[in-house]
Write a structure and sequence with these properties.
The protein is 80% helix and 0% strand. The protein is mainly alpha-helical.
Length: 295
């Protein structure tokens, strides 16, 4: 129950971050919003250093952090651009294609064995992506490809996090990620720089706080509960964003986006379920082998 509540809180915070980004994009370039999200997100993460002590930052994995953050900042810039220029429900729906790319990347980069049922789920998920993007029709927008690119890059980040988490604690990953993202996002922001005015300050501060808060709750939820049980909860971000998109921006959730989102979410839920089943089976077989004397 605690893991479920943490995931629900994380989902709500990420949804509010999306809304804050869209509100800020009315007067600021999304590259600049990304910088402020990271800057204020770092301020929100600094209490972790105070709690753990400066020695907590010692690591032998800095090159991997650097690569993870370079790819991550490219994903963030593409994702923020999509939030600022696409209907919110469409941008969020396409972001859910990340687990599909993660499955492919895990097989290609980590050598994970992906069997026929999970490959079928990946194919079904990409059918959902095509329903949303609709290439070759009047509903097609090149901007939707930017959202897909963000999801692709995010999958590489996910693989890097999976590798880092084998030796690095979650709080250290959060601290290093936010600290490196600040200078990395400042470079493109300087090319479009203008100081926020008035209420825009509220939106960029909120984006940073909500983003880091959501990240913290997300890592803790996954530590306590199984991915297969928690993944469906994260899909609540879509209806939250769709409601705010309708109330604040007069956006409607068209039937193609809804249909595609449901297909993607169903595929993701099945992939998460299969990964959990295989993990439990491997753990059970490992425990059984360890219990045999002389082996």
């Amino acid at each position: 129950m605690r893991a479920a509540l943490l995931m629900l809180g994380s989902t709500a915070l990420f949804a509010l971050m999306v809304i804050a980004i869209r509100l800020a994009s009315a007067s600021l370039h999304t590259f600049e919003i990304a910088f402020f999200r990271n800057f204020f997100g770092l301020l929100a993460a600094l209490p972790l250093v105070w709690r753990h002590g400066a020695g907590f930052l010692r690591t032998t994995q800095f090159p991997r952090y650097l690569f993870r953050c370079l790819v991550g900042i490219c994903s963030m810039l593409a994702g923020f651009w999509a939030i600022g220029h696409l209907p919110l429900a469409q941008a969020v729906s396409l972001s859910y294609s990340t687990p599909l790319f993660v499955t492919i990347a895990a097989a290609a980069m980590l050598g994970e064995q992906v069997r026929a049922r999970r490959w079928a789920a990946v194919v079904a998920g990409f059918v959902g992506v095509l329903l949303i993007v609709r290439p070759g029709t009047s509903g097609f927008s090149t901007g939707s490809l930017v959202a897909v690119l963000a999801a692709l890059l995010s999958s590489i980040v996910a693989i890097q996090i999976k590798q880092l988490s084998a030796s690095e604690p979650a709080d250290r990953i959060v601290i290093y990620t936010t600290a490196l993202w600040v200078p990395m996002s400042l470079v493109p922001a300087l090319g479009v720089w203008q100081w926020p005015q008035g209420i825009a300050w509220l939106w960029v501060v909120a984006a940073g706080m909500f983003g880091t808060g959501g990240h913290m709750l997300w890592t803790r939820a996954l530590k306590l509960g199984e991915v297969s049980a928690l993944t469906p909860i994260s899909f609540m971000q879509l209806p939250i964003v769709a409601v705010f998109g309708w109330l604040l921006f007069d956006e409607t959730l068209d039937r193609w986006t809804l249909a595609g989102a449901l297909v993607i979410l169903g595929a993701n839920a099945y992939i998460a379920h299969r990964e959990a089943v295989l993990a439990r089976r491997a753990a059970s077989e490992g425990a059984g082998a360890a219990a045999k004397p002389g082996e």
